[in-house]
């Protein structure tokens, strides 16, 4: 009786086994992308309380070489005073041309007197208002003319119950059209969304109605605030409330 010879296991070639054991994971260094460095025309700053403004010296190269950049450095501190609910007559004189306009989703102001009423009314509506963070960009179209855009993170205090303060935070895009060194048009786009008017909506009648509502709201505010009368605003102390954010 003959027995079958034992099966012989064939060894895989060394090259094949080495190929299986080869690590096929990509090198992280080949896929990792570095974050883009900020451009010279963009400056992000964390504003200090009230009228003090911090600037990023590393991102002001264009600001110091263009006239619009210099104008932006002059008027931005005054813009921050408006949005921090501590405006003064000096701020409006430094920012606006006599025939300037201001528009946001609630109001449409014509002339500096109405713009004053709009911003002096903010402390009457909110317990507090402050700029948390902002980014400035400029686009010069002519000497001392162009557009300044401020990407603004704004916080409003709605209510105070004991030690607890109720706040709402909102992103907005502030667009300032500058001519001859002064702002002639100021738009505040909440959330970056364009304003409704006869030119931006599909149904012109709806746009006209939105414009009429904003004009009516502005005229009522103008009357209540004394037709552009300058109001004294006090320096705001640091708010030590327990913060409850409303989303």
From TrEMBL:
Residues 56-65 have a biased composition (Polar residues). Residues 36-49 have a biased composition (Low complexity). SUPFAM superfamilies: NTF2-like. InterPro entries: NTF2-like_dom_sf. Residues 1-65 are annotated as: Disordered. PANTHER family: NUCLEAR TRANSPORT FACTOR 2 (NTF2) FAMILY PROTEIN (PTHR34213:SF2). This is SnoaL-like domain-containing protein.
């Amino acid at each position: 009786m003959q027995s079958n010879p034992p099966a012989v296991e064939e060894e895989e070639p060394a090259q094949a086994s080495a190929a299986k054991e080869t690590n096929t994971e990509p090198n992280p260094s080949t896929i990792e992308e570095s974050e883009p460095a900020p451009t010279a025309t963009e400056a992000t700053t964390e504003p200090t309380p009230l009228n003090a403004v911090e600037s990023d010296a590393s991102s002001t190269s264009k600001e110091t070489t263009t006239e619009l950049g210099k104008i932006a450095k002059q008027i931005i501190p005054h813009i921050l005073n408006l949005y921090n609910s501590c405006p003064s007559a000096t701020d409006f004189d430094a920012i606006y041309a006599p025939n300037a306009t201001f528009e946001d989703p609630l109001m449409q102001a014509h002339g500096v007197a109405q713009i004053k009423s709009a911003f002096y009314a903010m402390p009457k509506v909110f317990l507090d208002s402050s700029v948390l963070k902002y980014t400035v960009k400029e686009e010069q179209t002519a000497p001392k003319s162009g557009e300044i855009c401020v990407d603004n993170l704004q916080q409003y205090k709605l209510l105070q119950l004991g030690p607890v303060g109720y706040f709402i935070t909102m992103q907005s895009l502030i667009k300032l059209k500058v001519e001859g060194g002064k702002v002639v048009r100021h738009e505040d786009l909440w959330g970056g969304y364009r304003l409704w008017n006869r030119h931006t909506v599909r149904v012109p009648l709806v746009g006209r109605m939105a414009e009429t509502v904003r004009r009516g709201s502005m005229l009522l505010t103008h009357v209540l605030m004394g037709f552009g009368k300058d109001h004294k605003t006090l320096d705001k102390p640091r708010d030590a409330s327990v913060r409850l954010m409303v989303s």
